[in-house]
Amino acid sequence: PLMNSIGIRAKWLVIRPQNPKEFFPVTKAFHNALQGAEIPLSEAMKEIYLSESERLFRELSRRGELRGDVIICHDPQPLATISQFDGKKVWRAHIDLSSPNREFVRFLLPFIEEFDVAVFHFGDFVLEELKGRLPIYLIPAGISFLTPKNVELPQGFCSYVLESLGIDRQKPMVLQISRFDRFKDPRGVVEAFERARTELAREGIEIQLGDAGNMARDDPEGGKILSELIGELGAKKRPMPKRPLIPKSVVWAVGDPPHIFIVNLGATPLTENSLVVNALQRSATIVLQKSLREGLGLTILEAMGKGRPVIVGNVGGPAHLIKEDGMYGYGVGYKDARGNLVYTAEETAGKILQCFEAPVRTMEMARRAQRNVALNYSAIRHLLDYLKLLDDLVNGPSLSPKVSGPNFYPI
Questions:
Q1: Which candidate, 374, 366, 386, places its Cα nearest to that of 117?
Q2: Beta partners for 188?
Q3: Any idea where the domains of the chain sit in the sequence?
Q4: Phi then psi dihedrals of residue 196, to 5 deg
Q5: Tens digit of pLDDT for each residue in 363-389?
Q6: Cα(89)–Cα(84) distance, rounded to whole angstroms?
Q7: For residue 2, which phi and psi values (nearest 5 degrees)?
Q8: Res 396: pLDDT
Q9: pLDDT tens string 166-202
Q10: Do domains 2-142+379-404 and 155-376 have the same CATH topology?
């Protein structure tokens, strides 16, 4: 919408494979492998990806969809399809590619090299094989404060959302918002929360955990991860009556009275889903995002933009977003040589306790983060960076294979 509002005719195009149950498990494997997972690349996976990419290219071409001055392709799913477009094209990678599975890189590299430019969030995300071979732009994503996900909400609506989901609005809440994905470490989040809960209970403080997410069409693993989590915790499904502005959702709870809430949010209607996520973030005492691997970490930016203190795993984008422990958020663990988060539940629980033991320092940190997001991670800054890229690509001289950006400002 921002691009269109300033006169650039832009639109989203979502690929729809002929057999999603066959195609999406393959592209999910690609995604995990590019984040470093040790997965073998089979000939069958290659065949499924290449044949569907070719079919999509023919279909999109027949419908006249592949046109325009520039096409921006996001992540590996449509990569081989858009690489065939005979025009200016940009590959936008949202994944941390610092420690990828090289077998998958070798397979995908010829398609990436067909693009004019590659865009990454941060310098250490850049695929090593592209350095010196392709122009690289560093453009971290940003958030819009005018969307349902981030717009200011009345306290009454936030309370209404908590009540609708059965969450006690009187108790402090630790919140994680994410897809149900093994890289989001849902079991590790619960373990750290339980340790902190035990310690705080000795001081008469009762805390609760909200773990909310939804199912993405292109993530076939999500249902399995959610089922495993529910089973391990012995969570009980709670009645969820239909209420205005609350998407159809399923809630499981642990304890009596409940102290853990697992929420599978209905993805549609999109506006209602976004408003509920917004309300949960604004109601949280602490937002936790302890991913084992992570790209940018948009939910962290969203929480920071709302002035909520965050605790994150020191990997990928989250490590950049907090800058250093205690600057814009608290960090746990460290990244090993393979790019995975190494941490202990005790350390994570300790950061939760720190938020309660030093509330003034914690809220000062949260306010610094809020100012930093407004200045450096807004949709406006994101748009300006893209305008520079598009101008260079369409109107400028031939681009050299160097790294440009990011364009940050001191707070």
A1: 386
A2: none
A3: 2-142+379-404, 155-376
A4: -65, -40
A5: 999 999 999 999 999 999 999 999 999
A6: 10
A7: -65, -45
A8: 77
A9: 999 999 999 999 999 889 999 999 999 999 999 999 9
A10: yes
Q: Is 194 exposed, middle or buried (0-12, 13-18, 19+ CB in 10 A)?
A: middle
CATH topology of domain 2-142+379-404: Rossmann fold (3.40.50)
Mean pLDDT per 10-residue run, the chain (411 residues)?
92 93 95 93 98 98 94 97 97 95 98 97 95 94 96 98 97 97 93 98 98 81 93 96 94 97 93 98 98 94 99 96 97 90 96 98 98 96 94 83 76 64
DSSP string for residues in 184-198: G-HHHHHHHHHHHHH
Instruction: Supply the pTM of this predicted model.
Output: 0.93
Two tokens at 294? 């992570």
Give the pLDDT score at 195. Answer: 98
Helices 270-283 and 155-165 pack at an angle, to 10 degrees, of: 100
Look up tokens 């023919």; give the residue: 58
Note whether 260 and 190 are within 8 A (CB): yes
CB-count exposure of residue 63 (10 Å: 0-12, 13-18, 19+): exposed
Residue 286 CB partners (closer than 8 Å, separation 6+): 172, 173, 174, 175, 308, 309, 310, 311, 352, 355
Determine the residue type at 296: L
CA-CA-CA-CA torsion for 319, 324, 325, 329, nearest 10 degrees? -70
pLDDT digits over 2-32, tens only? 899 999 999 999 999 999 999 999 999 999 9
CB 320 within 8 A of CB 271: no
The helix (run of H) or strand (run of E) holding residue 358 is none
Amino acid in the structure at residue 396: G
> What type of residue is 389?
L
Burial of 398 (0-12, 13-18, 19+ CB in 10 A): exposed
d(CA 378, CA 311): 21
Question: What is the model's pLDDT at position 402?
Answer: 74
CATH 3.40.50.2000 fits 155-376, yes or no: yes
Q: Which residue has the tokens 């006249």?
A: 64
Q: Give residue for tokens 């453009």.
A: 139
Sign of CA pseudo-dihedral 70, 78, 377, 409: negative
Structure confidence at residue 411 (pLDDT): 64
Q: Exposed/middle/buried for 21, CB within 10 Å: 0-12, 13-18, 19+?
A: exposed
For 403, the token pair is 């790294």
d(CA 185, CA 187): 6
How far is 138 from 385, CA to CA, in rounded Å? 9
